[in-house]
Amino acid sequence: MAYQQGLYRLDTRTRIRVLLLGDGASILAGAARTEGTHQTEFSRLLNAPTRWSYAKIGFYFLAASLAWLIIYAHIVMASPPPVSSTPGELSGVLLVALFIALLSAVWRHNHSVYQRALARWDRLFVCLRCGAINE
C-alpha cells in the first residue's frame, strides 16, 4: 500500500496550433501525448524485488559474441597468411563457459537470492505515523 501511495501515473496531452505567415500562408497543427510514472524515494525504497531476466542474458551474450566475432575476423584479416585457428577455438570455448556461468548466476539469483529478498520484503512494516520501515 505504501508502495502504491508514492507512485503517481502521469498522462498529459499537449496540443500545438500555429499559424505561420510569410511568403505563403502555412498552417501547422499537431498533437503530442506523454505518459510516464513519477516515483517518490519512499516508494522506491519499498519497491518489491525483481527476478533477473534470462532473455537479457541471452541478448547480451549474443551481442558480445557478435562483437567478438567481428573483432576476431578483423584481427585474422590483418595478420600475415599463416594464421592459427587456436585463438578462435579457445575464444569459442571461453564464450560458452561464460554463457553457462551467466545462466547459472541468473538461476541462482532467481531461485535463492530473489526468494529470500521477497520473503524479507513481505515482512516489511511501514509505520504510517512516522514513516519508519521495520522488519
Q: What is the structure about, briefly put?
A:
The chain is of the alpha+beta class. Helices cover 53% and strands 24% of the residues. The chain folds into 2 domains: 1-15 and 34-48, no CATH class; 53-126, no CATH class.
Q: Structural class from helices and strands? A: alpha+beta
SSE topology string: HEEHHHEE
Fraction in helix: 40-55%
What integer is the average pLDDT?
77
Q: What topology, given as strand order, has the largest sheet?
A: 1-2
How would you sum up the global shape? flat
Computed CA radius of gyration, to the nearest angstrom: 27 Å
Largest sheet: 2 strands, antiparallel
Structure annotation, total helices: 4
Number of strands: 4
Distance between the termini: 16 Å
Number of separate structural domains: 2
Describe the structure.
- By secondary structure, the protein is α+β, with helices and mostly antiparallel strands.
- It folds into two domains: about 1-15 and about 35-50, no CATH class; about 55-125, no CATH class.
- Helices cover about 55% and strands about 25% of the residues.
- It has four helices and four strands.
- It has helices at about 1-5, 40-45, 55-80, 85-120; strands at about 5-20, 25-40, 125, 135.
- The protein has a two-stranded antiparallel sheet with strand order 1-2.
- The two termini are about 15 Å apart.
- The relative contact order is 0.12.
